[in-house]
């Protein structure tokens, strides 16, 4: 397997500390939420490049040739605007390759693409992720909404496996841990639905696309939707690498 690319799972914070009469503005970069996924892949012997959201605007691969350096790519909690709106194009009026179209061609020619859930995945909060309006809607294994698709479950909700023999579940046993929410998606007729959640919403689905493969995971691979119980679950160390191995056609 070639290396894989994880994109997203980071954000910057600007906050104001009020100390009586005085205020202090502070800023910081948060990107630790990628660590669980990256660690699970590295533990399985998979080489990983990680591209946080603020760098993806500038450095996400522009062409199929650049994407072909990777066996699989995962978008996780990063909206379509960040991928499509290269600042050089936006602020200098210079044409740039459409990265979404490049990903479509990459998959159809043999690449692998996964999307993990989150506030800026699939449709996302206030439909800001808006992937249903992009070329990726053609190749992802699920139908997406054109409005806010968050299903919040502060009480916890447990997915149910419907296709136990799918390769991504190899090595996992028993009931899954609970989650705190997910994106409402539905497997396409031509896709394989692997697990469901809630009232028959899709939790995991996979699909063959041309010579390549795509995968959808409706909840978060990290907190907050990905609960502490999920991140500590033994199956996490199996399922996450298996998704990328399946995308790379190694299982």
Task: Set out the fold topology.
Blueprint: E1 4-8, E2 11-19, E3 22-30, H1 35-43, E4 48-51, H2 53-59, H3 64-67, E5 72-76, H4 80-84, H5 87-92, H6 99-108, E6 112-116, H7 136-139, E7 142-143, E8 150-157, E9 160-161, E10 179-183, E11 186-187, E12 192-197, E13 201-209, E14 212-217, H8 228-232, H9 236-247
Parallel strand pairs: 1-4, 1-5, 5-6, 6-14
Antiparallel strand pairs: 2-3, 7-11, 8-10, 9-12, 12-13, 13-14
Helix pairs in contact: 1-9
| Neighbour order of strands in the largest sheet | 4-1-5-6-14-13-12-9
User: Approximately how much helix is present in the residues?
Assistant: 10-25%
| Secondary structure category | alpha/beta
How many beta strands in the DSSP annotation? 14
Task: Compute the average pLDDT.
Answer: 94
For the record, give the distance between the C-alpha atoms at the N and C termini, rounded to a whole number.
11 Å
Main beta sheet strand tally, sense and closure: 8 strands, mixed
- The geometry reads as globular
Round the Cα radius of gyration to an integer and report it.
18 Å
Low-confidence stretches: none
State the order of secondary-structure elements, H for helix, E for strand: EEEHEHHEHHHEHEEEEEEEEHH
Oligomer: single chain
What is the class in the CATH system? Answer: Alpha Beta
Under CATH, the homologous superfamily reads Class I glutamine amidotransferase (GATase) domain
Per DSSP, the total helix count is 9
Portion of residues in beta strands equals 25-35%
Write down the domain tally: 1
